[in-house]
Design goal:
The protein is of the alpha+beta class and 203 residues long. The protein is built from one helix and twelve strands, in the order αββββββββββββ. The strands form two sheets. Strands 1, 2, 3, 4, 9, 10, 11 and 12 form an eight-stranded antiparallel beta sheet that branches. A four-stranded antiparallel beta sheet has the order 7-6-5-8, with no helix packed on it.
Length: 203
């Protein structure tokens, strides 16, 4: 009985394992440089077209925000809403000496604001504003401060009325050198706290 045998491959004909590509340290370096460059470009685009980083200067928003706190401010398509924390352009008032300020929107265009210092109450359109965020009761300085003489305010369309959460240490719309603020001076809404790390997160 004839048997057929399949010829065996000679050593030269044996399939050789595919050699693994040797990774060089320069490959890892290139990868990380590319990743870092891409991240930086993305950050630049975000801060240029969508928002910006702003540092809190002063104590006017205590205890909500602290001096030196770093915030991410969203500006693209932003429309102010009551209760928002916003950053206002440093050219808004001369006596601020070129410092951008961070305040809370108390009322928007078309609304009225009334302040009752005796009861530490703020009314918006006649309704009591719930304000658990303020640091302490307000002092009545309307008889002592020549720049704070009013307790009733009407907010024009396209403007906002702003106050600091630290009412007794805040330059805001109660001061007639500032008054209601045109929306054009709003740089954006504070949406994220970056530093200190104990405050890191969405606001």
């Amino acid at each position: 009985m004839n048997q057929e045998f399949e010829p065996r491959n000679t050593p030269e004909e044996q399939p050789q394992p595919t050699a693994k590509r040797e990774e060089k340290p320069s490959d890892d370096l290139f990868y990380w440089l590319s990743a870092v460059t891409t991240a930086l470009v993305c950050l630049v685009l975000v801060f240029t077209f969508l928002g910006r980083l702003t540092r809190v200067d002063g104590e006017s928003m205590e205890n909500t925000l602290v001096d030196g706190q770093l915030l991410l401010v969203w500006s693209l398509g932003y429309e102010p809403q009551q209760g928002d924390i916003v950053v206002l352009n440093k050219t808004m008032a001369e006596h601020l000496n070129g410092v951008a300020i961070v305040k809370r929107v108390i009322a928007v265009g078309g609304q009225t604001v009334d302040i009752d210092y005796a009861t530490n109450t703020v009314y918006v359109d006649g309704e009591v504003l719930d304000e658990p965020y303020i640091k302490e009761p307000m002092w009545d300085v309307t008889g002592a401060d020549p720049y704070r003489t009013e307790t009733h305010f009407e907010v024009p369309e396209g403007s906002v009325f702003v106050m600091g959460d630290n009412r007794n240490n805040s330059d805001d719309s109660r001061d007639n050198r500032i008054g209601t603020v045109d929306e054009g001076y709003i740089l954006g809404k504070a949406v994220f706290s970056v530093f200190p790390f104990s405050t890191f997160g969405v606001m």
